[in-house]
Amino acid sequence: MALSLDACLRQATPADLEVLLTLVQEYYTYDQIDFEESRQRTALTGLLQEPSLGQIWLLEQGQPFGYAVLTFGYAIESGGRDAILDELYLREAYRGQGLGSQVLAFIESFCRQAGLTGLYLVVERKNLRAQSVYRKLNYVESDRLIFGKFLD
Question: If you compute the radius of gyration of the chain from its CA atoms, what whole number of angstroms results?
Answer without folding.
Answer: 15
